[in-house]
Amino acid sequence: MTDHAVDAPSSNDRTWKPDLENADKNEQLQRPQLEEKVTGGSIAMGELKHNKLGWKRLAICLIVEAIALGSLSLPSAFATLGMVAGVLMTVGIGLIAIWTSYLVGQVKLKHPHVEHYADAVALMWGKFGYELTSVMFVLVLILLTGSHVLTGTIAWVRIVNDPTLCALIWGLVSALLLYLLALPPTFHEFAILGYIDFASILVAITTTMIATGIHAGFAPGGLATMTWSAWPPASITFTKAFLATTNIIFAYSFAMCQYSFMAEMHTPRDYVKSIWALGIIEIVVYTLTGAIIYAFVGSGVASPSILSAPMVVSRVTFGLALPVIFISGSINTTVVGKYIMGRVFSTSEIRYVNTRKGWAIWLALIAGLTIIAWAVAEAIPFFNALLGLISSLFISGFTFYLPALFWFYILKQGRWDATYKNIGLSIVNGLVFLFGIVVLVCGTYASVWDIMQSYKTGKVGSSFTCSAASYGV
Description:
By secondary structure, the protein is mostly helical. It has 15 helices and no strands.
């Protein structure tokens, strides 16, 4: 690893985010002038409007991004890995995610004008790194929005419970809700929805726990007959074990949007409070969710585990989970929209969405992104498996090996062996980097295997289908 970051391209190159090299100096010079010229124009007003996020609301935004209905797939992962490995994986990977998120924030503090993940990668690899990361960033977030379209469809189909209705109707309803909820142009405003989102997932998880516990208690023989195990089943294969592990890994993928959120913080150094709050909440929620529901349901637990509850309870719980399905999905569209607005209108007040023209472009952009997400999700019959593949390829970098490289390229002071602290951190970040590469390689292999198996077993559905059965309901 080199001791210094690669020089970024000159600021007159309009094909990528400009002027990162002089960002630190520029911010120090411009901030006092900006505060004095609040009434001086739309750009100054826009800057202040997009600079109101505190650490508590940052934590809420990260929770919205990270904790969604996917957390109820963790009991299924525990069933594959066994209780002991499931708990250890959930706690261990959570601690790694907190560390890499800390590194991501340190880059922002050192280079204040880093507004999105691509800007940080550009500090290491210049224009190529910026463009490559931009594609990864936009692609993953649009696909994540698409996954919430499908999750919303499953929820509506289960709630309404009328198989005569075309399931595509619920896909369109889901896309419309995702569009409307993605419209707030600042994360300070969006965080208000985040409180509803967080309450929704906690209520949904708690209801599922209580319902499955009561159902198990009334089963013949009671809880003692539940088929959970401390260890993996004897029939487990590497690919199945790693697919289960990726469910846990990707539940901690909050670092991807961290720069986008931190760009609106009024006191960026407070981000450490946010990631500790998020990390502890995630570890507790994920561990309890995976362990308790797995113990109550046993090896046959469904994914999401709401489907393991009795029909009436399942319908009620999906209803309670609707806010988290759509709020957590819509924030992905908001992040992509803000990235595109900032890139295309980098020197215009349009990027701040505080003029009629800015609002018109913002409304059209969010609509376009949502339509793309809906169309891709409905058109690809193996969409969920594809999302797993894309996540293995890209989120492994956003969450693990890229933050480790940030330390070596951007944050490290002096040679790696200059001090005991440097040696220790070099070892830690080297191991995190290797872990990310393992996730990249093994997760990609397991996801490709999963797609092939889906075709072999006939589990791949049809594109734009009206059949509720194609959604696994």
